[in-house]
Amino acid sequence: MDLQEAICPKCGGPSPTGDICGKCRASDIEWFTCDGRVRLVRCPNCNSMRDNNGWNDCERSREDLEYEAAISAIHLFQDVQKPEISIKLEENSKNRTFAHISITGLLYNEPREGACTVEILWQFDSCDRCSRYHGNYWQGVVQLRADGRKATPEEQERAKRIAYQAEEELQLQGDRLSFVTRMEEGREGLDIIVGTQTLGEKISRDITRRMGGKFSLHPTLVGEKEGKKLFRITYAVRLPRYTKGDIIFIRNTYGEILGAEGKTISYLDLASGIPRTVPESTQSRYVGSVRDGIPMLVIYQDGEMLGLMNEETGKTEEVPVQSWRTIVSGERVHIIRDEDRVLVV
């Protein structure tokens, strides 16, 4: 050793600065620690995980979560450089896994290595959402009805799809408790029971926006919690009085309903063949529906008159046909009667 070279005052070895050398500094420091035990809480129904902030949806595998838990149990001294961590998982039972951990790194340019074992405990609890769902919890009900008629099966199925889509959208936004508790079909329509009022209002707005009609809210006081009044809300959704395929008398002519959206209805003018859109409040009269039309066979066409035959009875009759329609012999059509008028639809 050069007499001019600085030495470590602790071990007498070389030290570039004359301070305690890296080897001595490293030997005096607990360069890593491991938590002996980590607890993971998972919902057995939907696989959600609970942390300090509550429940969260989770689609990760058990193995990924255990690796992450093992990493979180390791605490390195702040000056450790180039750490390398190796983890071997040993599943002891459904509720217990041991993570065998090996660690290497540099501390003040001195190589360090060590090992520890972390016990990972699994706890299975029903999450907030599943507890409410399986407990039949609800905060509101969307009552789907139609104005002056029964909601059709097609309308009810479409409303179901809209409700589940609304549920999915809210849950993707992090609203875990917005779920459809159940659906009940009744004589007049569909009841959609929901877990939150947020979902109930969204379903109501989405249905009326896409299917027409309107809705109103009717709260019912059900109790108090911590001095705050608790309400359940009935969302009364009323679909338009007409549905696709209905035949109406409107503006001195006949029309076939094409659909409804918002506060308007669209129909095909059967006299001209032109689609029209009018406010829902426009005065009109229900005549029938193409679903209830009488099937007839076209046996001839003479100008604007059709010769039709009822294939069940063999009875024939002549009816006027709209000039914009092209109908050929042998074609099958349906007719709707309105007093002394016969409409080909």
UniProtKB/TrEMBL annotation:
Database matches in InterPro entries: Nmd3, Nmd3_N
GO molecular function: ribosomal large subunit binding
One GO location term (cellular component): cytoplasm
Start and end residues of each Nmd3 N-terminal domain: 8-239
One Pfam family linked to the record: NMD3
PANTHER family (UniProt xref): 60S RIBOSOMAL EXPORT PROTEIN NMD3 (PTHR12746:SF2), NONSENSE-MEDIATED MRNA DECAY PROTEIN 3 (PTHR12746)
Protein name as it appears in the record: NMD3
The species this protein was found in: Methanospirillum hungatei JF-1 (strain ATCC 27890 / DSM 864 / NBRC 100397 / JF-1)
